[in-house]
Amino acid sequence: MKPENIADHDRSQKRFAILLIAIGCGLACGLSFAIIWISNYYAQSNPTIPGFPKNDQFTVNSCTFFGTAPSYTAINMSIQNTGTSAWTISSTGGQVNSLTGLTVKSCGNGGNLNCTNGKTINIYITTPCTSGNQYSITLLLSDGNKITYVAQAP
C-alpha cells in the first residue's frame, strides 16, 4: 500500500470507531429512557404486576384550613378512594412541610382512618399554619404508600 493510502485507511478506521461509540451511547441512552418509562408506567397504572407497589388511588375533594386568619390551627381534608381496594391512613403518619409524625384524626367515619373503594374519608391534622404560605401535606398509608397534596393557606 502506498503511504497516502495507509494514512487514509487509518483515518477511516478512527472515524468508524468514533461512529460506533456514538451509536453505542445513543442506544444506551435510549434503552435507559425506555426502562425508566416502562417502570414508571407500570408502577402507576398496573398494581397487579409483581415487584411494583400497590396502586392506591385517591382524589382530594377539599383541603381547608381551620381557625382564624392569619393563624390557623389545623388542616381539614376530604379524600375519596377512587381505587379498587381499601387503604388506611396511619394515625401518626402525617407530615406538613418538614414537620413529621403529626397525628391524623378522622372527622366522622366512626373515628376510623380506613377508606373503602368509592367512599370518602374526612380527616384533620393539628398544626400551625399562616395565611399566604404553601403547605405540602403527606399522609402515610398503612401499606407504605403516601398521599401527597399541596395547598396554600388563604
Topology:
Blueprint: H1 3-45, E1 58-68, E2 71-81, E3 87-96, E4 99-102, E5 104-106, E6 114-115, E7 120-130, E8 134-141, E9 146-152
Antiparallel strand pairs: 1-2, 2-7, 3-4, 3-6, 3-8, 5-7, 8-9
Could you list some keywords that capture this structure?
single chain, 154 residues, alpha+beta, Immunoglobulin-like, 2 domains, five-stranded antiparallel β-sheet, four-stranded antiparallel β-sheet, 1 helix, elongated
Describe this structure in words.
This protein is an alpha+beta fold and 154 residues long. Helix content is 28%, strand content 44%. It has one helix and nine strands. It is elongated. The N and C termini lie far apart (83 Å). Mean pLDDT is 83; it is low at 44-53.
Helix content: 25-40%
Encode the helix/strand succession as letters. HEEEEEEEEE
Assigned CATH class of the largest domain: Mainly Beta
* CATH A-level architecture of the largest domain: Sandwich
Given helix and strand content, the structural type is alpha+beta
Q: What's the overall average pLDDT, rounded?
A: 83
Number of extended strands: 9
What's a quick, concise take on this entry?
The protein is an alpha+beta fold.
